[in-house]
């Protein structure tokens, strides 16, 4: 068991091919992905199983709350509620100074320390993971399939940090064996052209032969890209799920120029606020977005799309992937028949 794991650095990544077990985990917004589960005594942040499907439902949180963690470590928590500065912790470690206010209590609950371990988890070659009845574990069911989350009640288990129960409906259509992924920026003219062909492609190839997954590729030179991407994902949390998200995308596509800037730096939208963009989308799509847009940790879903694009080296929109491989020979200007001809028979 490690004493501390600090992972909250911009553009960092953390993957554990076995089980993660530590007394302190600092990874706010930079989660760790684990293969055989995780146990964290104190911390800010969360872990996710590799290949996770639903980030909120499958998140593994520390046993003790953020408030309890603040009473345990030396650095003061940030006043804006964003946890702790990783720089403070690193500076203390490099200077040979303690990062904990006092020595760790002995195992057990009397002193509020890390619980005494008891073997409880086993997943093939991963071996046993010491944990307690309060720990969230998941069992690997398929290589890249869904995970089952199991949580047992316990006196030390805290509510999820954001106390959210929302779920973003995956932007997936069709159920065939061939996977067709499209990375789109909602206000990019080429992405709009590609978006308009996806239904026709699915009809042409057949829903039983093709699975279309839409990935959102936010690009900062499209000035309101981040706001619009969040609107789409907010819509996906509503009762109609991906249908609402698709309606929002279609509304933006149909009125694309009203969401853009002149030469990416001027025009009427210089005076438009994010709330104005939200109201404009609501008016065109008929989808009420404001409340869902304000979900505090919706950025978890936004960041997933960003990380997925980055790990695949995606820059251009649209970019097409077939069965996990980027297809540079496909473009938005191709016909649906041309797209179909490049798919596996």
Describe the fold and architecture:
With 345 residues, the protein is an alpha/beta fold. The protein has helices at 55-58, 66-70, 86-94, 189-195, 198-205, 225-236, 242-254, 274-285, 290-293, 299-311, 336-341, and strands at residues 2-6, 15-16, 20-26, 32-34, 38-44, 47-49, 118-122, 128-131, 137-139, 148-150, 172-174, 178-184, 210-216, 319-322, 325-326. The protein has two domains: 2-150, no CATH class; 172-341, Glutaredoxin. It contains eleven helices and 15 strands. α6 (225-236) runs antiparallel to α7 and α7 (242-254) crosses α8 (274-285). It is globular. Mean pLDDT is 79; it is low at 105-163.
SSE arrangement:
Elements lengths: L1 E5 L8 E2 L3 E7 L5 E3 L3 E7 L2 E3 L5 H4 L7 H5 L15 H9 L23 E5 L5 E4 L5 E3 L8 E3 L21 E3 L3 E7 L4 H7 L2 H8 L4 E7 L8 H12 L5 H13 L19 H12 L4 H4 L5 H13 L7 E4 L2 E2 L9 H6 L4
Parallel strand pairs: 1-3, 2-4, 3-5, 4-6, 12-13
Antiparallel strand pairs: 7-8, 9-10, 11-13, 12-14, 14-15
**Secondary structure: number of strands:** 15
CATH class of the largest domain, named Alpha Beta
Number of continuous helical runs: 11
Into which percent range does the helicity of residues fall?
25-40%
Low-pLDDT stretches? 105-163
**What's the CATH topology name of the largest domain?**
Glutaredoxin
Q: Major sheet: order of its strands?
A: 11-13-12-14-15
Radius of gyration: 23 Å
The secondary structure category is: alpha/beta
Biggest sheet, open or closed, and with what strands and sense?
Answer: 5 strands, mixed
| Beta-strand share of residues | 15-25%
Number of domains: 2
Annotated CATH homologous superfamily of the largest domain: Glutaredoxin
Question: How do the SSEs run, as a string of H and E?
Answer: EEEEEEHHHEEEEEEHHEHHHHHEEH
For the record, give the distance between the C-alpha atoms at the N and C termini, rounded to a whole number.
50 Å
């Amino acid at each position: 068991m490690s004493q501390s794991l600090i992972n909250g650095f911009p553009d960092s990544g953390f993957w554990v091919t076995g089980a993660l077990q530590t007394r302190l985990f600092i990874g706010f917004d930079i989660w760790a992905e684990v293969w055989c589960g995780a146990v964290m005594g104190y911390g800010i942040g969360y872990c996710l199983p590799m290949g996770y499907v639903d980030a909120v439902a499958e998140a593994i949180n520390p046993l003790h709350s953020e408030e309890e963690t603040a009473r345990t470590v030396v650095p003061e928590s940030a006043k804006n509620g964003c946890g702790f500065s990783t720089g403070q912790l690193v500076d203390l470690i490099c200077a040979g100074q303690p990062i904990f206010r006092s020595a760790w209590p002995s195992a057990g609950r009397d002193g509020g320390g890390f619980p005494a371990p008891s073997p409880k988890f086993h997943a093939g070659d991963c071996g046993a993971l010491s944990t307690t009845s309060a720990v969230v574990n998941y069992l690997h069911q398929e290589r890249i399939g869904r995970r089952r989350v199991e949580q047992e009640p316990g006196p030390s288990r805290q509510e999820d940090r954001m106390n959210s129960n929302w779920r973003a409906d995956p932007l997936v259509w069709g159920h065939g064996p061939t996977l067709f992924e499209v990375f789109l920026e909602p206000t990019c003219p080429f992405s709009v052209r590609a978006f308009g062909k996806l239904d026709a492609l699915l009809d042409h190839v057949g829903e039983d032969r093709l699975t279309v997954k839409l990935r959102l590729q936010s690009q900062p030179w499209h000035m309101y890209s981040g706001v619009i991407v969040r609107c789409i994902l907010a819509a996906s949390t509503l009762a109609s799920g991906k249908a609402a998200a698709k309606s929002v995308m279609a509304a933006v596509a149909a009125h694309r120029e009203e969401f853009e800037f002149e030469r990416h730096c001027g025009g009427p939208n210089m005076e438009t606020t994010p709330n104005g963009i939200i109201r404009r989308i609501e008016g065109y799509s008929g989808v009420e977005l404001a409340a869902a847009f304000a979900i505090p940790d919706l950025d978890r879903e936004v960041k997933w799309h960003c990380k997925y694009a980055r790990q695949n080296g995606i820059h251009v929109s649209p970019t097409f992937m077939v069965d996990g491989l980027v297809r540079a020979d496909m473009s938005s200007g191709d016909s649906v028949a041309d797209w179909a001809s490049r798919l596996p028979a």
